Each structure stands twice: as C-alpha cells, then as structure tokens.
Amino acid sequence: MRKEDKGQLIESIGVELSKYPYLYLVDIEGLSSVNTAKLRRLCFRREVKLMVVKNTLLRKAMENSGIDYTEIFPALNGSTSIMLSNVNNLPAKLIKEFRTSCPKPVLKAAYVEESFYLGENNLDALINIKSKNELVADVIAALLSPAKNVIGALQSGGNTLSGVLKTLSEKAE
Q: How many domains is the chain partitioned into structurally?
C-alpha cells in the first residue's frame, strides 16, 4: 500500500472517530461470513458503526485525534474491529446479545464516558453503565421524590381532616 493511501485511510478513520463519542475495540476474527453479515446488519439496525481496521492505522488515527487513547494501545494486537456509537452502552448490549448464538465478538477495550475499559471482564460493567443524561434524570427524580411525598401527605391529610370535621359536625346534631 502506498504512503498516500495509508494517509487517506488514517484520515478517514480519524473522521469516523471524531463523529462518535464512544469506541469499542472488538475481535471478530474467525466469524463465518454468515455470522459476520448478521453482525453487520445488527450493527446497522442499531446505528452502531462497525469497521475492520489495521492496528497500525487505527493507532495513528487515535494519536491524531486529540484524545489520549494510550491506555487502550495494548489492546491493539491481533485482529481488531471497532464499534462506534452515540449511545454509551449500546455496543456492549449488542455484543452480549450476539454472543447468545456465537462465541464472538470478544471485547478487547472500550472508551466510554471518558474512561477506558480493558478486557472482556468489563462487558457487564459496560452494559450497566448509565449515560450522563440518565444520571441527571435519576438525580432529578431523587430530588423531586421528597417534594412529591410532602405534597401527597398534605393533600391526603387535608382530605382526612375535612372528613373528620364533617363526621364531628354530623355527630353533634
């Protein structure tokens, strides 16, 4: 491959890396063509970008990206594919779902919510990770819950108090 071609590939990989905030490195080596096609279709339906890349070209694109990916460089060995997504845990869920019928893909590393996850043992943690928006929603719900309880108690207390007064007024007659 000519140097100009490599430069163009590095640039195109870099463009894809900049489009998506979440990156998963996976190994899909050994998948049959049928299973590879199924995986690609599933990724397409879920809006996950799946690309098979050369490790050296991916490493160069990562070095040029502006994000310090050095923690996941040790995972750049053997066959590497990247899954790019706008939803932090979607590729992890997709991997888990696809592995019910096939032993691959295997998670090598991930960059999610500005943190690095190395190795297959982090797959369950990545599935359960919440996005920033989900965490904000949880905090707001937690803050609103006591206010709702107070309002509910006041409303039900008012009904109880008016019921007691009505009963007492009827009893006096």
A: 2
